[in-house]
Amino acid sequence: MATTRRSLPLLRTLIAGKTQTRNVTYMPRPGDGAPRPVTLIPGDGIGPLVTNAVEQVMEAMHAPVYFEKYDVHGDMKRVPQEVLDSIKKNKVCLKGGLRTPMGGGVSSLNMQLRKELDLYASLVNCCNLPGLPTRHEDVDIVVIRENTEGEYSGLEHEVVPGVVESLKVITKFCSERIAKYAFEYAYLNNRKKVTAVHKANIMKLADGLFLESCREVATKYPSIKYNEIIVDNCCMQLVSKPEQFDVMVTPNLYGNLVANTAAGIAGGTGVMPGGNVGAEYAVFEQGASAGNVGKEKIVEQKTANPVALLLSSAMMLRHLQFPSFADRLESAVKRVILEGQYRTKDLGGQSTTQEVVDAVIAKLD
């Protein structure tokens, strides 16, 4: 799932008297190049629009993946068992947004997926895209968020009428494994610093345990700088000097807030890729989806921005060990953004989803 920051070494070969540039990628294991099945959940709202965009681009570049599509919606009581079976068989899923009902005691299907598949790490890559003007430059932040416990896990009940108790559970096991994932990601992607986000000045036991776990793991990675920041100060620093952050590791609720804030700073939720990963399974989706699922006008006008999910699908291709296809897809998307001719309304343009997709396909090398 990791996205490398430095370009791969280049090998020049002479073919038919012409000089061609090829990427040196990796030596594949037998079977690595076989087409892979991927579970596809179009979801609600803009989900079918942007997942269809990915399908078109994958077909255009003959990517070695094929999709098993399932109709799932956020108002269902549970994720259908056949969908879970498909993800467990394929190990990888690509999904659009699923609408989460407000109140009423209906559980979020997104949370069900994370718990059922133990997708304990959420990763959102928030970085400036060349050609897309933002208030801050040099933003390149990866937010890694614990995905299975804390306030966001929805453990709450009504004690007596008018009194609701919401539980925040933090365990050493989950804190250690998310910290280890963050440091491994930093190490493998040539990142220099990991920042732990917390509120241990108030929640001394819960967030204190999270910090203690991060500190223990940090000692095993002496080449990576480690620091800590209180979540309210973190939000202030994000909007004033975001370039100071590199990799951020957070408990569940803080991570959702921090990731969406960082996405807004770096260009908006429509361009930020992300995914959720565990020891066995991975689900890729738009990295920061605040408010996108329910925008019916965007659905009617077919002007949803497909960039975030296209970049998420590039992350998926790397996860599947198809780096050359991932590079082609990323390069095409970034060239479309840089040239600026085809952009959806959220990026200051007037293009439809299909026009952006056609532009990306035209830029595929």
From TrEMBL:
Location comes to: Mitochondrion
Q: Which InterPro entries match?
A: Isocitrate_DH_NAD (IPR004434), IsoPropMal-DH-like_dom (IPR024084)
| Keyword Isomerase attached | no
Cellular component GO terms held in the UniProt record: mitochondrion
GO annotation terms (biological process)? isocitrate metabolic process; tricarboxylic acid cycle
**Mind telling me which Gene3D superfamilies this protein's record contains?**
Isopropylmalate Dehydrogenase
UniProt keyword terms in alphabetical order: Magnesium, Manganese, Metal-binding, Mitochondrion, NAD, Oxidoreductase, Transit peptide, Tricarboxylic acid cycle
SMART domains in the record: Iso_dh
Main location class: mitochondrion
Report a single Gene Ontology molecular function: metal ion binding
In terms of SUPFAM superfamilies, this protein maps to: Isocitrate/Isopropylmalate dehydrogenase-like
For the Isopropylmalate dehydrogenase-like domain, which residue ranges apply?
37-360
Q: Which domain of life does the protein's organism represent?
A: Eukaryota
Function, in words: Performs an essential role in the oxidative function of the citric acid cycle.
Q: Which NCBIfam families match?
A: mito_nad_idh
Give the record's family classification: Belongs to the isocitrate and isopropylmalate dehydrogenases family.
- Name of the protein: Isopropylmalate dehydrogenase-like domain-containing protein
Source organism of this protein record: Gossypium darwinii (Darwin's cotton)
